[in-house]
Specification:
Radius of gyration of chain B: 22 Å
Number of domains of chain B: 1
CATH architecture of the largest domain in chain A: 3-Layer(aba) Sandwich
Strand content of chain B: 25-35%
Shape of chain A: elongated
Number of helices of chain B: 6
Largest sheet of chain A: 9 strands, mixed
Helix content of chain A: 25-40%
Structural class of chain B: alpha/beta
Order of helices and strands of chain B: EEEHEHEHEHEEEEHEEEH
Structural class of chain A: alpha/beta
Chains: A alpha/beta (323), B alpha/beta (257), C alpha/beta (402)
Largest sheet of chain B: 9 strands, mixed
Strand order of the largest sheet of chain A: 9-8-7-10-6-1-4-5-11
CATH class of chain B: Alpha Beta
Order of helices and strands of chain A: EEEHEHEHEHEEEEEEEHEHEHEEH
Number of strands of chain B: 13
Oligomer: heterotrimer
CATH superfamily of the largest domain in chain A: HUPs
Largest interface: A-B, 92 and 84 residues
Number of strands of chain A: 17
Distance between the termini of chain B: 58 Å
CATH superfamily of chain B: HUPs
Helix content of chain B: 25-40%
Chain lengths: 323, 257, 402
Amino acid sequence: MAGNIWIVAEAWRGQVSEITFELLALGREVAGQAGVPLEAVLLGSNARELAQKLGAADTVLYADNAALADPVPENAAAALAQLIKERQPAAVLVPLTNLSVDVGVVLAAQLNVPFLNYCKNLKADGGNLTATCVLYGGKMEATVTASAKPAIIGILPGARSVEQGRSDKAAAITDVAVTLAAPKVHFKKYLDPETADVDITQKDFLVAVGRGIQTKDNLELAEDLAASLGGAVCGSRPVIDQGWLGLSRQVGKSGMLVKPKLYVMLGISGAPEHVEGMKSSQCIIAVNTDAAAPIFNVAHYGVVGDALEVAPALTEKIKARKG
Amino acid sequence: MNILVLMKVVPDVVEELEVGSDGKSLDTSFLRTIINERDDHALEQALLLKDKHGGKVTLLTLDAPDIDDVLFTALAKGTDRAVKICGVESVQSTQTAVKLFGDVIAKTPDLLPVDLILTGVSAIDDLDGLMAAPIAHQLGWPYTGVVTHVTLADKTATVIKEFAGGVRGEYDVPTPAVLGIQAAEKPPRYVPVAKVRAAMKSQTIETVDAPAVEAATTVEVQQMAKPQVTGHAEMLEGSAEDVAGKICELLAKRGLL
Amino acid sequence: MSTATASADKDNGVMTLENLAKFPEGQKVYSCMQCGTCAATCPYGDDLVFPPRAIITMLESGLIEEVFASPGLLNCVTCYACMAKCPRGIKLTEVLLPLVKEQVFTHLKEVPAELQKALENTMRYGNPMGESPRKRALWAKSSPVPVPVISEIKRPVDVLWFVECYPSYHPRGNDGNRATAKLFKALGIDFAILGNEEKCAGECARLLGETGLFEMLTDSNIKLLRKYQFKRIVTGGAHAYDAFKHKYPAAGFDFEVHHTTPFFAQHLAQLKPKLTKKLDYTVTYHDACALGRHNGFYEEPRALLQAIPGVKLVEMAHSGVNSICCGGGGGGMWLDTYYAAKGCERLSERRVKEALDTGANVLAVSCPYEISRFEDALKVQGGEKRMVVRDVVELLAEALEG
């Protein structure tokens, strides 16, 4: 394959996002198949120490520029476009997070190439890249070839494990220079969530509710179950948008990443946006009326049934056992 | 303040989706389409801005089955103009949709100027791109995506964009701009059917012919399939009572109680 | 088009709030003597900003717009209590309230989320739950008695069974369906269902004031029914029955229609010898508003229950014409969260308290909404161990198995 495999590292507020390591793990495989080096691109300002964490890549291209300190996608895209022009990678893997997706789509627009979206797996086969993309909210998977040069590919969270992409190896950092014009869009500030009533990321037991609970009143059933377990209630995006639960209780793409010992899901079908926030839970039990709900491919235990009936029954049993 | 909203339809996943006989696309015999949920939020956001600042909201869509109902509903909600791009077979790729919208926006005399173009930040069928960024690029306008709040002042839209962990970012975006809407500040409003019917009698949908665009994309679907079940949950069966008992046993065994 | 547009409709024989006085039933509205019986009998009387008599005052004094602007009438569950008790015989629930509620609904600044979803689902999928229309007849696969679909058997039938939404999709409603199918078979009745083509009868949309949606569903269902040949329609949906009986005819519906409870009561002589299994239940019957107060079916369900060997029938403090609504009518089915937020007591809970007070162990019902509403309320009241909720048809079917 002509050209290296790149991953765009995501770092913000002084931290490398976990998905960066997932991309490193996937990128490593693809680079191996293609017989080319894997390069990570880190854009930032005074972020060299973060570049050192990316040892899983053969090279880290580190661009330091004051304009890259804040999350301004057009700056990041402009920087990447320059580097791509100079170095001609074969493929650029971009994290499909709220933070990085805009970088990917603006970059693709600038280069006039497609942005291959919802990719959960990627293979290099001879000179071709074949991606598996998740469509229609997880109902279908498409096997896709991407022949654009470079192929800009949005990688879903969870494509590989974080551990696979971590390395103790010292990163080989190459400093690269980028020239950036003043951006049109001006980043003003971060808005942190209001102090959470409960920190769901610290709970061992979570009861998650989705659209399937139908009404706000039914939250009580989830609260009761969470109380019996000694945990807290959280929810998928529709429940938060409806105002039934606060923003601090949202699990998934825009919300929290949780890894409790037990994650009980009431009426959540398993949209990828939610799954990415909870898939690392140690034990997942899903209750859903739809036997074909994609969540049953993620959960360890499944119940096809009405969450509104199962939840109170379970609360009773747990209470009885705990005495 | 004038706003142009771009809308497209996506497969309705309330219905089971099946793979077509070519093995690489959806079986269309039972396929029903529904408006992309985030595009509906984009329209709501536009209407909320209109409620606040006045101005006109124009809705531009690609033709699709039942699209007139969607357009009349939008008109009944307060949209000022509804325009559909006719002569398009079912548009299979987002790249093609971008080209169609981009071309129509550029060439239809009175769609521009506007202060904002709003569209959903993404759709469940966006395989080869997202709509908003390339359209912004084509117009040379600024773009911001994953937007959940928009405040308009003179020549600036102050927007809130979602990151992760409940953290959001505030940006100033000079107008005219293209925004990819994640969610409107309020869920899309309801409009009684009687008002939609009244709109059908009193208002019209404008049409423009689809320009000829090359459907060239470098993304090619080789195969489509329902996801292979890698690990399926162990299913627990019985009445709610039975199932609760089984779960309880499991939790006890795992030392979780 | 709306039947109550504020514009001065050129009548066309359509009653509006402006031309009320031109119709005998409308004229009667102005005979109100402000006795307040309507407010006193209304289950949400304390929460209504404008009880019927106040609406009439506002109408007379030209201030009706104020009523339109208030969401208060979302608390009207269209239980027909005010109409049943009005000493002047004013058709409050039939004539006045629908015209006003349509305007209230149109003027709502925000439709409560749960209700909005139900309406949008009904419009798109033909059922308020938002289930796939292609799964509407899926329940029939689990029926112990074959349930033919009329489009598949391609012949006329005696009974066309209009199943309705909750019975089609709700697991407890499915139980009632299986029972109804068994009863049809026991009586040797040739029946079929519409299958996936059937759509919500729409009565709740109408009662809520979403008249346009009701008209849409009316047209669609009538068109569908005209495709097939049958002698009569039987439905387990109390609201569907009410709509077919009183509202659909205006749109050209001219079929004979029955609700399952009175229908089986008509066949009691034939059914009774087959009810051989003794059921040692103490049963109290909840009169559904649409069947009782609006259609006078008070005796039929009780006659059926008393025909079951072993059943002891007891009455609640409020029964018959005095029955208290389950709170599900007029969109109330999807307003529980809204009512709770306003601090209103749930009517279903008020009702099950009365039911529990009778000491009965079975609460018998004839309307598909009531099963889930009362089962829910029993749980809230901690009464689910003492009492179960069963449709009358479920009890009959159980007694068949001697």
